[in-house]
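Journal club side-thread
Mid-discussion, someone asked how the predicted structure for our own chain would compare to the paper's figures. Pasting it here so we can look after the session.
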Amino acid sequence: MPLNDSPGINAGKEEDDDITSEMKRSAVYSMTVSEFYKLIKRIESIHASICDNILESYKIPEACNMWIKREVDRKLPFQEKHVKQQASIIGNLEDFGVIKSSLIKEQCDDDGLCVDKIDSRPAVVEFGAGRGYLTQMLADCYGIERVFLVERKSYKLKADRSLRQKESLILERLRIDIEDLNLKAVDSLQGVPYLAIGKHLCGPATDLTLRCCLSEQDSEHNMEQCLGNYSLKGLAIATCCHHLCQWKHYANKKFIVDLGITKEEFHAITWFTSWAVDADHGSDLSVDGRLHLQSMEQEQYVGDANGIEDAVRNMKAVDRAVLGFMCKQIIDLGRMMWARERGLDTQLVKYVPSSISPENHLLIAKHAKCS
């Protein structure tokens, strides 16, 4: 069965066209000043009520020391900020109980004969893999032996060369858009427990990946699949570029609607998220749950032909950034809840300080009954 035999399988059920950033901006700037401030206050209220337990979780596991200390293939590109992000994604997976740092254990039978036993190691499916260096770190530090790199584009300087030098490792590149990927059509993955990972899955790519791993029809049978042949062991997705998110692809529309947010307001919220990454993060800006709305004196803009433009221009940079982070967290929390409704233990954390990357949200999950 060809990999691309299921076009749009993970796209969602909406028939809408994609909404461009310019269209989102125009929608915001067409609001009245009153509507603009009411939406901001509602975002603040929603965030305060549902986003109160997103933890700081910067984890550098001991197993990744060889990368941190640059004791790896010298031909591999090394950028400290990316290495720290990759290591913390892996550290959070270990901390959440999805992978183990000690892969080799000695076991003895009844006769006292001891042998080395390799723990069951999941395959790794890296979505939006790019050059594949997150998988490279997992293979180097945790002994992963089967990997699938999902990427629609072609890259130079890939990790593939180094990965293929590992005699025990089997590598497959799946050159396909996540929107069209049917994992059930990948013969070599059938019945194999796998870990789904992705570093900076831009905009709707996160939603496409969630659907790819947890299809709609699976939700009613997740327990039977978990105890039977269902092979997803866990996932870790570092989200980013929320301004590119699309209503047509978003996994948990019900969550948004139940919050009283319309499709048009969702588009505005995604546009606000760009303000989070526009800020100066040298001081490690964080969301404290409060906007300094007293700095936004909305009355002065009422009746002004350029009211919204002036209101936005005069917002303090910190207020714009905090609002952007709030919107990002609301979007990601909906995704987390969608995975939880499908039988997973889930957690949303800030896996690196914003000074390393403002795109610092990590969705991690594992099957509650498959651990």
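Post-session note: The longest helix spans residues 317-340.
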